[in-house]
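Researcher: Sequence recovery benchmark, item below. Answer with residues only.
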């Protein structure tokens, strides 16, 4: 019986038969449809995912004319901090543009959070100014809302992760609501400084990592940034496929935030004024790559069908169908890209 090389969700290699791959694709689609209350992929779309998974060669590509653009989170830091190449960040931006052919890049500080950046923003703006002076592509400034940084002892509010186990529900909710106010002020402040430095946009990265209050802070910050600086683009990237209900009762424009999947998350991002939305679908490391890919494409297709702003799908370590590993294997990454673009109708990656 012929078997095809593919991956597990943790990146390990595995050989699977055609029947096993097709069954995993079907089950991945059903899981997404059940969780998100969204339509399943068609039989033809599932057959095409099978074709993509089993294509010969290590690298696959989209059909000519279906190429998309890319944005990145902390893109200028990747060479400096992750690849351990001694290089100033504005130089990394030049390498990204002129050597790697990036479509855009995000300058971020190693401590990738708006609360931390606010303290050193006077050191960050010259980096942005220098990058803008020497580049053609859009350069954004990015960081995470990271609501947890506002808790004691480093921040001003009580830690809701400590209060919740003690059944202090009201106190935990009040702490999160107070943290939202601090986070919004910091994000808007940094956005204003970067706007003055010539930034093309602001990347709010990993929105909702601390739950629904974190997501609300990101929405409110987007709203205020667009009011004050209407020409400044905002890329709104989610932290997970659904919003954790750490608070549980928070709403935006009449919609409860907790529990929202990508196709509903994008509508709130649109209302807030975001220019790009980055949906996330989490990888299950115990399942196969075909299962994870089919599940991801199901969520993204439903999101793209309702979205009125561009979708730049999060495809990296453990999201977007990509295996959870420090160095994602190129065979899985390119297959995920192709499926997300050609079936999921992604506008970017």
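Model:
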């Amino acid at each position: 019986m012929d078997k095809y090389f593919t991956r597990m969700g943790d990146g390990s290699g595995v050989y699977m038969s055609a029947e096993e791959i097709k069954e995993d694709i079907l089950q991945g689609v059903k899981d997404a449809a059940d969780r998100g209350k969204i339509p399943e992929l068609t039989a033809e779309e599932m057959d095409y995912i099978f074709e993509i998974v089993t294509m010969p060669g290590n690298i696959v590509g989209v059909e000519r004319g279906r190429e998309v653009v890319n944005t990145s989170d902390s893109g200028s830091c990747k060479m400096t901090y992750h690849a351990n190449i001694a290089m100033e960040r504005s130089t990394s931006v030049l390498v990204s543009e002129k050597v790697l052919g990036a479509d855009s890049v995000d300058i971020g500080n190693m401590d990738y959070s708006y609360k931390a950046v606010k303290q050193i923003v006077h050191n960050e703006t010259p980096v942005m100014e220098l990058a803008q002076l020497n580049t053609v592509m859009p350069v954004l400034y990015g960081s995470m809302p990271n609501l947890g940084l506002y808790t004691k002892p480093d921040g001003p509010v009580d830690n809701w992760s400590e209060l919740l186990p003690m059944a202090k529900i009201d106190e935990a909710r009040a702490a999160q609501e107070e943290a939202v106010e601090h986070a919004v002020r910091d994000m808007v402040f940094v956005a204003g400084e970067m706007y003055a430095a010539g930034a093309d946009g602001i990347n709010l990265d990993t929105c909702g990592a601390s739950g629904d209050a974190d997501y609300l802070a990101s929405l409110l910050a987007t709203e205020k940034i667009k009011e004050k600086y209407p020409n400044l683009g905002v890329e709104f990237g989610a932290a997970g496929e659904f919003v954790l209900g750490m608070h549980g009762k928070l709403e935006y424009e009449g919609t409860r935030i907790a529990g929202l999947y990508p196709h509903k998350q994008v509508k709130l991002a649109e209302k807030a004024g975001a220019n790009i939305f980055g949906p996330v679908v989490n990888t299950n490391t115990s399942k196969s790559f075909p299962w994870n890919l089919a599940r991801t494409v199901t969520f993204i297709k439903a999101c793209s069908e309702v979205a009125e702003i561009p979708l730049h799908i999060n495809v990296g370590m453990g999201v977007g169908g990509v295996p959870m590993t420090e160095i994602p294997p190129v065979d899985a990454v390119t297959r995920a890209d192709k499926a997300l673009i050609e079936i999921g109708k992604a506008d970017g990656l």
